[in-house]
Specification:
The complex is a heterodimer of chains A (about 400) and B (about 500).
Chain A: H1 2-32, H2 35-39, H3 44-66, H4 70-73, H5 78-81, H6 83-107, H7 115-132, H8 137-166, H9 170-188, H10 226-243, H11 245-255, H12 257-262, H13 267-294, H14 305-315, H15 320-343, H16 349-363, H17 365-372, H18 383-389
Helix pairs in contact in A: 1-3, 1-16, 3-15, 6-10, 6-13, 6-14, 6-15, 7-8, 7-9, 7-13, 7-14, 8-13, 10-11, 10-13, 10-15, 11-13, 14-15, 15-16
Chain B: E1 3-12, E2 15-25, E3 30-35, H1 41-48, E4 56-61, E5 64-66, H2 71-76, E6 79-82, H3 94-99, H4 114-127, H5 142-155, E7 160-164, H6 172-187, E8 191-196, H7 199-205, E9 208-213, E10 216-221, H8 227-235, E11 253-263, E12 269-279, E13 283-287, H9 294-301, E14 308-314, E15 317-318, H10 324-329, E16 332-335, H11 339-343, H12 350-354, E17 365-366, E18 369-370, H13 372-385, H14 402-413, E19 420-424, H15 432-447, E20 451-456, H16 459-465, E21 468-473, E22 476-482, H17 487-494
Parallel strand pairs in B: 3-8, 3-9, 6-7, 7-8, 13-20, 13-21, 16-19, 19-20
Antiparallel strand pairs in B: 1-2, 1-4, 4-5, 9-10, 11-12, 11-14, 14-15, 17-18, 21-22
Helix pairs in contact in B: 14-15
Classes of the chains: A mainly alpha (about 400), B alpha/beta (about 500).
Chain lengths: ~400, ~500
C-alpha cells in the first residue's frame, strides 16, 4: 500500500506542482489585465489589496461555479449546492473518453490528434440510431452506443491501416481526417434524414427518450449515467494495458518498437488495433455526449472535446486514472469559468491561460524541478514527443 | 611534451568513475590505458580534454599546472583527441572539416582556405599520408577518415594525442596501418595516449601500459607481459581467454541459404547472391568489417528485412516470407546486434523482457489475460539459470549492466526450442567476464548439436569460436575458410583481397 502511494505521489507530483504554478501565474495575468486594478498603479498599497481581492474573487467564483455554491444551497439543502459539481462531471464525461483515446495511443507510441473526428462519428451514429428507431429503453441505449463505438472505431482504424500499410504518419492523417469529419457533420445535418422537421438550421431531431441515458440524481441535475460508462472505460483501458497480452504488445511497441518487432510482435497489428480502439473510445465519448446531455446533434456537438483530450492525456501522464482526474479538472475549469465570467470582471479566456500554463509546465519538468528545488521529480519527458517518431 | 595527471577524481552521483587517478606520459612516449568498458577510461580522457570537470586533482603539462575548462583550453595546451566516434561532417571536404572551428576569413568575411591547405599538405607530407584535401569525407574509407581526425589534431599543434578506442571501426589491415602511423608520430616527438581494451594492439604499440579497473589505476605492466596477465589485471581475477572448444561432431544441414539478395528501400543490393550452409554442431562465423551486409543478412534470417529475394530453408522449411513470429517459432534463437535497441525494452521489467516473444503462450497467458505470477516465477528460474544479476526481476532492464542485459536476451532466446542460434556481435561492448559467459553458452549450443551462425567483426572472437569462417565483403561472401586460417589471410579477405 505504501509503495502504491509512493507511486501515485511520484507520478502526481509534477502535474500537481504545474497546476499550482499555473494558478499563481494566471493570478498575475488576472490582476494585471483588470482595468480597475491598473488604475490604482500609483498607490501601491491599494494596488496590492485590490489586485489580491480581484484574483481572490475570480478564483472563488471559479470554485463556486465548479464545485460547491453556498448560494444555491441556501434554502434548498446541501445537495443543491453541489449542482456545480454535477455540471463539472457532465462536462468531464466526454472528456474522460476522448482523453483515454489519446492516452491509449500514447501508450502504443502513437499520437492521436484525431479524437475530434472520431468523437463526431460516434455522435452522428449514436444520434441516428437514437432518433430514427424505437426499441425498448435499455436495448435502445445499448444499440445507439454500439453504433457510435463501431463507426468511430472504423474511422480510427482507417488511420491505423494507412500507417501500418503505407507508413503515412498518424499525426498528419488524423489532422486531415478531423477536417473530413468536421465537414461531414455539416453536410449530414443538411440531409433530409437528419434535418429536424420544421427547422432550417442544422440540428437533428432529439433522440427518443428510450435512447437517452438515465439521470443519476433526479431531474434537477443533468448528471447522467455517462460518467459510469466513462469510468468503466477507464478501468477497461487500465485492465487492457496491464493485464492482457494485447496491452502487453501495445506497451512493448510504444516503449521500443524495434525490440518488439525483433521479438516477433507485429507492429502493424498493434498500430491498427490501437487506432481502432482509440476511435472506439472517442466515439463512445461522442455517443455518450449526445445520449446523455445534448440529445440533439448539432454542427458544434464536438466543441473542443477532441483537442482538449490531448492536453488531458498529457496532464494525466497517459495513465487511465490520471486521465480521469485531468478530465475532471478540465471540466471544472470549463464550468467554473462560465460562472467566473458572469459574476466577476475576469473573462472566461483566463481558463485557457490556466490550461496552457499547466501543459507548459508539464512539458518543461526541468523548470518545475528548478522552481521547487526537487531533485528526483519523476518525469516522462518523452511522452509528448514520442508519438512523432513513429 | 609531457602530461601528468595527479589525483583525478570524478563522481557521478554515487558512482565513483575516477578515484584519484595518477598517470603520466613523457615526451615521445606511447602510454596505453587498458580497461574494461565502464572502468572509467573515457571519463578520464574527457576530463583531460575539457569535456568534463574533475571533482579533484590536477593536470600538468611540462610540469606546469594547467586548468582545462573546455576543449579549446586543451587544444591551447597542446592536447588533441581523436574520438571513438568521429567528429566529422560527412558532406564537407577534408579541408573544410579540418578548418572547422578555426576558419580564416578574408576582410569581407569570405572563407580563406589557402593557408590551411598549404599547411595541411605540408603536414601530410611530413607524416607520409596521402590525402586529397578536396575529397568529401563521406566518400573516404573509415581508416582515412580517422587519419583526417588525427591530422586535424596535429594541425593545431597537438603535442599529446589521445586516441580513444581507435581501432574499434578498423579492418585488421587498417589497424596495422594506424599502428604504423602512431609509431611515426612518436618518432616525431608526439606523446600518445592510446585507450583500448584490445590486448593484442596494446602489446604491439605501447611503451608502458596502465590498467584501470573500477575507476582506479590498479597497476602497470610492460608490453612484454602476456595477454593472460594483462587480462587478469584488467578484470581482477584469472581469465580464460580461449574458451575450451571440444572437437565437434558435424550433423545434418540445418540452415541452407541459396542465392539470397537483400535490397534497401531504393532497390540497392546490400547483400548479393549469398549462399551457404550451417550444419548441426558447428559454428559458422560470418566475419567482416562492419557495414558489409552482415547486419542485413543476420536480420533477414528472422525476416526482419523487407526486401529479400532467394531462398533460406531451416531443416527443409522455407523461411523467406514468414513473419518474424513464425520464424522465431520455427526454432531460431536470435541475438540482435544492438541489445539496447533491438534486444530489450529498457523501460520494461526484466521479467517482462523475458516474455517478449512468448507472452501469448501458456503458462504466461490464459486466454488474453496475462498471469503475472507465472511470469515472475519463470523469470526467477531463468535469472538463476543464466546468472542474471539484478536486485529484483521486477527492476527495469535499463538498471542492468551490459553483460546482464545480454544474459536476459540469451535467456529469452534460448528458452524456446532451438535448432539454429543466430548471434550478431554477441559480445560487443561487454566486459571480459560476460564475454566468457556468452562464449561458453554459444559453444554449449554447438556441443548440443545445434547450428550456430555467428556474426562478428572481432577477429579474436571469430577465431576462438568458429569451426568455419565465411568472410563478407561488399555484400558478398568472398570465401568460406577453415578455422585454421591465419590472421593475416583473414585480415586480407576482410579487406576484400582474394589472392
Amino acid at each position: 500500500m505504501k509503495k502504491f502511494l509512493d507511486r501515485v505521489l511520484g507520478t502526481a507530483l509534477l502535474p500537481a506542482l504545474s497546476f499550482v504554478m499555473a494558478f499563481v501565474i494566471s493570478g498575475f495575468v488576472i490582476a494585471f489585465s483588470d482595468s480597475k486594478v491598473l488604475k490604482l498603479a500609483s498607490s501601491p498599497g491599494k494596488f496590492i489589496t485590490t489586485a489580491l481581492s480581484t484574483v481572490g474573487n475570480a478564483y472563488l467564483a471559479l470554485f463556486q461555479g465548479s464545485v460547491y455554491d453556498p448560494n444555491l444551497a441556501h434554502g434548498h439543502g446541501f445537495l443543491q449546492g453541489l449542482y456545480p459539481l454535477s455540471e463539472t462531471v457532465v462536462t468531464a464525461t466526454p472528456l474522460i473518453l476522448t482523453g483515454l483515446a489519446v492516452a491509449l495511443a500514447f501508450q502504443s507510441g502513437l499520437f492521436n490528434i484525431g479524437a475530434q473526428g472520431q468523437f463526431i462519428f460516434g455522435a452522428v451514429a449514436a444520434s441516428y440510431v437514437g432518433f430514427h428507431f424505437t426499441f425498448t429503453p435499455v436495448l435502445h441505449v445499448a444499440l445507439a452506443l454500439i453504433a457510435g463505438v463501431l463507426s468511430a472505431a472504423i474511422w480510427g482504424g482507417i488511420v491505423g491501416i494507412l500507417k501500418a500499410r503505407t507508413g503515412a504518419h498518424e499525426v498528419i492523417v488524423t489532422i486531415m481526417m478531423n477536417y473530413i469529419a468536421g465537414f461531414f457533420i455539416l453536410w449530414i445535418l443538411k440531409t433530409t434524414t437528419f434535418l429536424r422537421h420544421g427547422r432550417i438550421d442544422p440540428i437533428a431531431p432529439e433522440v427518443n427518450p428510450s435512447a437517452q441515458l438515465p439521470h443519476l440524481a433526479g431531474n434537477n441535475f443533468r448528471l447522467h449515467a455517462g460518467i459510469l460508462i466513462a469510468l468503466a472505460a477507464a478501468y477497461f483501458v487500465w485492465w487492457l494495458l496491464n493485464r492482457t497480452t494485447i496491452g502487453f504488445r501495445f506497451r512493448a511497441v510504444g516503449a521500443n518498437a524495434a525490440a518488439a518487432k525483433t521479438a516477433g510482435i507485429s507492429v502493424g497489428y498493434v498500430t491498427i488495433a490501437t487506432m481502432a480502439l482509440c476511435g472506439a473510445l472517442a466515439g463512445l465519448g461522442g455517443a455518450v455526449h449526445v445520449l446523455g446531455s445534448e440529445y440533439a446533434l448539432t454542427a458544434d456537438i464536438a466543441g473542443n472535446f477532441g483537442f482538449d483530450a490531448i492536453t488531458v492525456a498529457l496532464l494525466g501522464r497517459a495513465k487511465p486514472l490520471g486521465t480521469v482526474f485531468a478530465a475532471l479538472l478540465f471540466g471544472a475549469l470549463r464550468t467554473g469559468g462560465r460562472t467566473m465570467q458572469s459574476n466577476t470582471t475576469t473573462p472566461l479566456d483566463i481558463v485557457l491561460v490556466i490550461q496552457a500554463l499547466i501543459v507548459l509546465f508539464i512539458a518543461a519538468p526541468t523548470l518545475v524541478r528548478y522552481i521547487f528545488r526537487i531533485k528526483n521529480l519523476k518525469t516522462q519527458e518523452a511522452l509528448a514527443s514520442k508519438g512523432w517518431n513513429g | 611534451m609531457s602530461l601528468e595527471l595527479k589525483g583525478i577524481t570524478k563522481s557521478f552521483g554515487s558512482l565513483l568513475a575516477n578515484d584519484s587517478i595518477d598517470l603520466s606520459v613523457g615526451d615521445g612516449e606511447i602510454l596505453a590505458i587498458l580497461g574494461e568498458n565502464g572502468a572509467g577510461k573515457s571519463t578520464l580522457m574527457n576530463i583531460v580534454y575539457g569535456l568534463l570537470q574533475p571533482d579533484a586533482g590536477e593536470i600538468r603539462v611540462n610540469g606546469q599546472l594547467v586548468s582545462i575548462n573546455e576543449p579549446s583550453d586543451a587544444l591551447a595546451a597542446g592536447i588533441g583527441m581523436v574520438h571513438q566516434h568521429f567528429m566529422l561532417i560527412p558532406v564537407f571536404t577534408v579541408l573544410e572539416n579540418i578548418v572547422l572551428g578555426h576558419e580564416a576569413t578574408s576582410k569581407l568575411g569570405k572563407l580563406d582556405l589557402t593557408s590551411a591547405r598549404a599547411k595541411l599538405l605540408a603536414l601530410a607530407k611530413d607524416f607520409g599520408f596521402v590525402i586529397d584535401p578536396d575529397a568529401l569525407v563521406e566518400s573516404l574509407p573509415v581508416g582515412v577518415q580517422q587519419r583526417v581526425e588525427i591530422l586535424k589534431a596535429l594541425m593545431y599543434d597537438a603535442k599529446v594525442l589521445i586516441l580513444d578506442e581507435p581501432t574499434a571501426v578498423l579492418t585488421p589491415q587498417e589497424t596495422d596501418e594506424l599502428l604504423e602511423v602512431i609509431r611515426r608520430l612518436r618518432t616525431q616527438g608526439t606523446s600518445i595516449i592510446f585507450i583500448s581494451h584490445k590486448l593484442r594492439e596494446v602489446k604491439a604499440i605501447a611503451n608502458r601500459i596502465s590498467v584501470i579497473r573500477r575507476g582506479k589505476v590498479v597497476g602497470s605492466a610492460e608490453p612484454s607481459a602476456s595477454q593472460e596477465e594483462l587480462a587478469s589485471l584488467m578484470v581482477g581475477r584469472p581469465v580464460n581467454l580461449a574458451p575450451d572448444k571440444t572437437p565437434h561432431t558435424i550433423g545434418e544441414v540445418i540452415l541452407h541459404v541459396k542465392d539470397l539478395t537483400i535490397s534497401d528501400a531504393t532497390g540497392r543490393a546490400l547483400v548479393k547472391d549469398v549462399s551457404f550452409d550451417v550444419r548441426g554442431g558447428e559454428v559458422l562465423a560470418i566475419a567482416g568489417v562492419q557495414g558489409n551486409g552482415q547486419s542485413e543478412l543476420a536480420q533477414s534470417i528472422i525476416n526482419l528485412e523487407p526486401h529479400v529475394v532467394g531462398s533460406m530453408t531451416l531443416e527443409g522449411r522455407e523461411l523467406v516470407g514468414m513473419s518474424v513470429h513464425q520464424s522465431l517459432h520455427e526454432g531460431i534463437a536470435f541475438i540482435p546486434e544492438s541489445r539496447e535497441l533491438d534486444g530489450l525494452i529498457s523501460s520494461f521489467s526484466i521479467a517482462d523482457n523475458l516474455i517478449l516473444d512468448t507472452h501469448r503462450e501458456k503458462p504466461y497467458a490464459k486466454g488474453i489475460t496475462l498471469s503475472p505470477r507465472e511470469v515472475f516465477a519463470e523469470a526467477e528460474v531463468k535469472a538463476k539459470e543464466f546468472d542474471i544479476r539484478a536486485q529484483s526481476i521486477k527492476d527495469p532492464a535499463s538498471s542492468l549492466s551490459g553483460g546482464n542485459k545480454q544474459k536476459v536476451v540469451l535467456a529469452r532466446e534460448l528458452s524456446r526450442p532451438v535448432k539454429l542460434l543466430v548471434a550478431s556481435q554477441p559480445t560487443r561492448g561487454l566486459d571480459v567476464g560476460s564475454i566468457e559467459f556468452v562464449h561458453e553458452r554459444i559453444l554449449a549450443e554447438r556441443d548440443a548439436g545445434r547450428a550456430v551462425l555467428l556474426f562478428s567483426t572481432e577477429l579474436d572472437e571469430v577465431l576462438a569460436l568458429a569451426d568455419r569462417i565465411a568472410v563478407m565483403y561488399a555484400g558478398k561472401i568472398l570465401a568460406i575458410v577453415d578455422s585454421g586460417v591465419t590472421r593475416e589471410k583473414l585480415g586480407l579477405l576482410m579487406a576484400g583481397v582474394v589472392e
